[in-house]
Specification:
The protein is mostly helical. It folds into 2 domains: 11-40; 41-121, no CATH class. It has 5 helices and 3 strands. The protein has helices at 11-38, 46-52, 59-67, 84-93, 99-120; strands at residues 43-44, 74-76, 79-83. Strands 1-3-2 form a 3-stranded antiparallel β-sheet. A hairpin with a 2-residue loop joins strand 2 and strand 3. The longest helix has 28 residues, at 11-38. The termini are far apart.
């Protein structure tokens, strides 16, 4: 970004130029957002899901997870289907926190408890 001095006389031209650049950035962000929403979600069969998941669990293991409702799925008649975005979210939600993340959460909890204790007194 340029670090230039703008005089009072240059201010109207600068504001117009700045507005034009903001409009260009807004249009660019909208077009990227629209493109990201047009990518269709992929559907997996249970066999494809087995190949997609880390560790490639056995199909019978996945049937057990479906029966216990441990994994997101859709059913059409007897056929099972798994949406990639649901599976990705499910995988991410099972992420184990690191020790440093747990330390931060513990410190936040302690700080909130001490604040709550002072308010109650």
């Amino acid at each position: 970004m340029e670090n230039r001095q703008i005089t009072f006389d240059q201010l109207p031209t600068f504001v117009v130029e700045l507005g034009r650049k903001v409009d260009e950035l807004t249009a660019l962000l909208r077009s990227q957002n629209e493109r990201s929403h047009t990518i269709p979600d992929r559907w997996f069969s249970i066999e494809e899901l087995s190949e997609y998941l880390p560790g490639h669990p056995a199909v019978t293991t996945l049937y057990g997870k479906v029966q216990r409702r441990e994994i997101p799925f859709s059913r059409k008649g007897k056929r099972l289907a798994f949406r990639q975005s649901d599976i990705d979210y499910w995988l991410q939600s099972g992420r184990v926190k690191t020790n440093s993340e747990l330390d931060i959460l513990a410190n936040q909890h302690i700080a909130n408890k001490s604040k709550g204790g002072r308010r109650a007194a």
